[in-house]
Amino acid sequence: MCLFFLNYEQPRDNSGAPSIRKEGIPPFLLRCYPYHLFPHGGFGKIVLGRLFTQMQFCRIRFIVAPMSRFFRSLTALFKPPFNGLGLVVVLYFAWAHLVYPHNDVLRGNLPDPDNYMYLTQTLDWLKGQGWYDHVQHRMNPPQGVVIHFSRFTQIPLAAGILFFEELGLPARGAAMLTALIEPLILLGVCLGVLRRTAARVVPKRWAGASAYVALFSLTLMYEFMPGQVGHHEPVIILVILCLGLVLRLFEEPENIWLGAVIGFILAFTLMIALESLPWALLLAAYLGVWSLKRGGDAARSGAAFALAFLVGNVVCLFLTRPLATVFDADILTYSIVYVVLAAAITMPFVGVALVPTKPSSPRMRGSIFASTGSRPRRWIPAFAGMTKEKWIRWLTGLSLAALSAAFFLHLFPQLAFGPYGAIDPRLVPILLDTAENAKPILKTENGWAHFYNLMSMGALALCAALAFFWRAKDTDREKWGVIVLLLASSIGLTIFYQYRFLGMESALAVIPLTALLQRGWGWIGNNLRDRKKAFAEIGLLLAIGPLPAVLIPALYDSRSFNTGVLLFPVEPGATRCDMARLEKILRNPYELGDKPYVILSQMELGPELLFRTDHSVLAAPYHMNVEGNVDAAHFLTTTDPTEAMKIARRRRVDLVVACRAVAGFYLPQKGGAPTFIEALFGESAPKGLERFPSAVVKNFVLYRVRPAEAQNDANAPQEKK
């Protein structure tokens, strides 16, 4: 940043060198050079606050004052190879959250119900729950709920909680502090992985600029905001890591061990979260086509990848499931189903590797896509002129792939619709109507402005990647081909399938945008001079990040400068129902007694109630395929109070909690009868419930369910004396 002062001219000494005036201007404010940017004076006599000695990144040079020695050490951050820029991004990101005036996270409210679920599972593990016991026994009692979260992602959380407990914090306080710190550490790891991946498509000295691009990929940064603990962050890191290794494999097709490493990492990623399945399938498909085209070393490396993927899935299965349940098939959790899928993927790779091949001629050696004719931009899949061995290899690979896919879908047809294909049909409307990240963006109600905010960077990155692919040759075309495939798939999945893929789309967009920044900077340096060059470089820096992500949205949504522009990395959302007072009541033995209760609530409140209290809850997170979600949703949406009380008594509910910020799913349709959740917010308590004073619980209503006999006694006619 620079401080601007107009119409100030430095006095010069006898030698003609500028001197520093004692009055008026502090000695660290220096004149802006070179003057040739402004040959006619005016702005050429602007004095800039000296922050950095030389910014090669912007091609502006400054005269240095002795007091700027501290800032001189920061110069390397903003010029190739940008060493330390990633650390600056992480520190700025953390600072923005610390000073944000309405930061809900610092008040102890995590951004997502899954965050509370992860912390609760980790605390239960530390209290003695077994490694293989993935059941949350306080949810949906008495059956409990099988949580699909992997214990491996809970290891760093457990380490942080134990560390802060040793410092004297209680378990829940240690968990909250860990939830604030761990995402920032993972953000640093993510920036490092992005740098190594970007180094495969840009010069290494420019790869560090990916940290600048990532800072403005706001949906990516949201995944790493303080309080976001879960599996989304590790999945993004591991998929980007696999992408970087795949790009390296294209350069070193003879490196069989590299293919095996990719397979093991993808298997581990799939075990962590099933949402990584599309990326595993896409990378496997692309590597399969690459193996078919190149043959030889590429086919052997592809077979090593597939075999390692299969062995890795077998190992991960035994690491996550006890022996008694190893062969239980469950599409909604990591199970034998995905080992069978890995075996189906392995078959065509091994078949292709076993086909004998001869060394390919120079004319056919190279990328998956072959140039034809005299114009290198015209390409078609390279089938023309294939030898007999190549025809056999292609027919073998495609036939085995088709047979494997048909066999697997015959065994598990539900997986053709994704992991949610096996979910209870009664939960489908709940998933689609209550969970934003389970909807496609086109079906959200946020408008076109919100759509632009989410997709502008991804669209720009896809256009850049397509342009680079079109102009590339041989190995570079293979690299850009897989980047285009993953990025286009992530955009399509986000728009037409589920919102949850937006974080991966933002991470993938960083790679082509970094290449666009590097190539654009080089083109400007080679073709423009003086003032045009300076303005073009400034425009490029704005176009890749600040302009589409921050400045243009600020023009139409009237955000303030401090909270909307300066602190742009912070998600402005806030929890509308603060549970602080309710937590005190639910944990106070003098208010409710010291026995554990069963609480019925909206689904998004269930995990937080589990974390903040020792009670049990009926409703699970929205994506859990459990009877508790069906009963809780039916209780709150029914128009018959008698039916609602039957559900409460059948499930032995003791307390009913509802937040006044009601999701549209719980409200009646136009012209429909009022739902039971509206009766909970009425002036009088519904029949069968006893309300706590509304002044005590802010933003919530809290009811005690009356025993059936007590309700009958209250309704019985009184005898006349």
Tell me roughly what share of residues is in helical segments.
Answer: 40-55%
**Residue windows where pLDDT falls under 50 for at least 5 positions:** 1-67, 360-383, 712-721
Going by helix content, strand content and strand pairing, the class is mainly alpha
Terminal residue distance: 88 Å
If you compute it from the alpha carbons, what radius of gyration comes out, rounded to the nearest whole angstrom? 30 Å
Provide the residue-averaged pLDDT.
81
Proportion of beta-strand residues: 5-15%
Globally, the shape reads: globular
Strand order of the largest sheet: 11-10-12-14-13
- The tally of beta strands, per DSSP, is 14
- Helix count, DSSP H or I runs of 4 or more residues: 28
The biggest beta sheet reads:
5 strands, mixed
Quaternary organization? single chain
Characterization of the model:
Helix content is 52%, strand content 6%. The protein is mainly alpha-helical. The chain has 28 helices and 14 strands. The strands form five sheets. Strands 11-10-12-14-13 form a five-stranded mixed sheet, with helices on one face. A hairpin with a 7-residue loop joins strand 8 and strand 9.
